[in-house]
Amino acid sequence: MRTYKNLILGCVALMAILACNSNKNSREAELLKSGIHSVVVQNIIQTSQYTYFRLKELGNMQLKENDSLWVAVPKTEAKTGETLYYKGGYPMKDFTSRELNRTFKEVLFLDSLSRTSDFEKKENTVVKDHRLMSSSDSGMTGKPKIKKIEVKMDKGNGVTIADLYAKRASFSGKTVKIKGQVVKFSPDIMGKNWIHIQDGTESGGKFDLTITTDLTVKVGEMLTFEGKITLNKDLGYDYFYEVIMEDAKILK
Q1: pLDDT in tens, 65-75
Q2: What pTM does this model have?
């Protein structure tokens, strides 16, 4: 009799656990429909600027049992086994971390990780106000904070920043040369170095050009760059570039 009773109690407990897990999976699936991913931290790698997390996503029926993903956020603290949440992100395939000397098949760069699925509660974010680049980028949405400086230089045989913004459609996808003074340099962000230049010209209030490259420069240098012009580059969140020069090289 006691064995039968214990069996009944065990079945009831199992059913309760299954029901709880089912409700949890349903909630995670609903969050996923609204673009919110529920994840569990499986592994953490710290570097000087970034924290890399290997995450297991919950509630996504399209993933296999052993599937996981790597994400990167600015250096922060979390614990293995902790449940976190994220939205969006910028994926980079075959990303190489110079500091780790490791190439990841894919890394998702995130604006933030949260300890709650309610992203309106800023106090619960693990990472707050992450900026892939300064919000001063004049090609980004949001109020520019980079100040216009006085630049005296010869135009040379390239285009100007005023040209790029005023006639942007004609430059889309084309490789151009532009000379300017370096006003900002941000190294090794998402596998690239980011440069801002000014040349003393402007169009519609836009006086600053963002350039990506694998080269190193110094603020104050007057340099000529050559690279491909891309329009309306959207990195997610507020990182939208109306005009950007990508994979630039420096001309002598």
Answers
A1: 788 899 988 88
A2: 0.57
